[in-house]
Design brief:
Helices cover 34% and strands 21% of the residues.
């Protein structure tokens, strides 16, 4: 079972090496690593060249945003399983993807959902929060609950059925895609109660109050676009529960 790991990046010289290394070190699994670069002008491409190998496919050109870049990665992927690893993130162990493949094969899954640890820049070994996918239920989409995207592993046939990401979104395109996938498809999925990705804070969706406001606006737009009733009170009700994640790691 071949796995396509897609990483999109732009001027990520300070973080991308850890992501590249964590993919290159994966054991006992057939991998292609697709890196979609938005025409970086720093040392990002130089760092990527160090890890250039037969399993790494690089495409560097201007794009129309994160979801346009992700769609480009999907278009050239050849794996049976698709996952996205942000340039700021990395897998927790060398056996992460092998364990994912084992789970998906054993339970004949369309989607496997796992957990992530959030960490601050320069503090990789000190997780500040655990995002548990066990909280996800398609019936809770109207309340803004979704699994962590870097810890979501999806068979390519699901993308063939559901379609690409809507590039009109700036932050919540993955939320919109998850709505379309889980509301219109009879997916076989399960939760793996295990942290598989260390995810750095400060990304586009965790950058501060302005990003949080934009994210929630887009979540509401995604719900309404897909005929799911929601409102600001419903969306904001998730935050008290999220606070618990800072104390139970």
């Amino acid at each position: 079972m071949k796995v396509s790991v897609i990483t999109v990046c732009l001027n990520c010289e300070n973080s991308i090496e850890q992501a590249l290394k964590s993919v290159a070190e994966q054991l006992n699994v057939d991998i292609e690593h697709i890196v979609i670069d938005g025409a970086s002008t720093d040392n990002t491409l130089k760092i990527i060249s160090i890890y250039q190998r037969t399993q790494l496919v690089l495409q560097s050109e201007p794009d129309e945003g994160i979801y346009d870049a992700m769609n480009k990665g999907l278009a050239i992927s050849t794996g049976e399983v698709i996952c996205f690893l942000n340039a700021d993130d990395h897998y927790v162990s060398k056996s992460t993807l092998a364990s994912v493949v084992d789970q998906m094969r054993e339970f004949e899954l369309d989607v496997l959902l796992a957990d992530v640890h959030f960490f601050k820049p320069n503090s990789r070994n000190k997780p500040i929060r655990r995002y548990r996918a066990q909280n996800f239920d398609p019936n809770y989409l109207a309340w803004g609950w979704m699994p962590a995207h870097p810890a979501m592993f999806v068979r390519k046939i699901v993308y063939d059925k559901v379609g690409l990401y809507d590039k009109s979104f700036r932050i919540a395109g993955d939320y919109d895609w998850i709505i379309r996938a889980f509301r219109t498809s009879d997916l076989r999925y399960k939760h793996l109660p295990k942290v598989v990705v260390n995810m750095q804070t400060g990304g586009v969706s965790t950058r501060g109050l302005a990003s949080t406001l934009l994210l929630n606006k887009e979540v509401i737009r995604a719900c309404r676009k897909n005929n799911i009733y929601t409102n600001w009170l419903m969306i904001l009700s998730k935050y008290p529960k999220k606070l618990v994640e800072f104390f139970i790691k």
